[in-house]
Write a structure and sequence with these properties.
elongated, 96 residues, mainly alpha
Length: 96
């Protein structure tokens, strides 16, 4: 018998872990660019969405406590990561 709730949980955990790795990787790119070209990229701001992702994942998966606040935390972390990535891209391509 297939337990669809467990499969759903595994996919959700996998998705958020991959998202956290991508955010950390992009922050690392910002750090590299700052060290290489001596341009302030504010790479440390990528820790904020990373922490939001970790808190939301811990709250929903480990403690089984899913509320509107965890959904908002997931949304905010995604939006912050998107905005910071776009800012870093514009900064690196001399778009700003």
């Amino acid at each position: 018998m297939v337990d669809y709730e467990t499969i759903s949980r595994v996919f959700e955990i996998y998705t958020w872990v991959v998202a956290a790795i991508i955010v950390a990787f992009i922050g690392g790119i910002g750090l590299f660019y700052q060290k290489k070209f001596k341009v302030n990229t504010h790479y440390y701001l990528f820790l904020i969405p990373l922490l939001f992702l970790i808190v939301a994942l811990t709250s929903t998966q480990i403690f089984n406590y899913e509320t509107i606040y965890t959904e908002v935390a997931e949304l905010l972390s995604g939006l912050m990561a998107l905005i910071l990535t776009a800012k870093l891209y514009l900064h690196m391509t001399e778009g700003d």
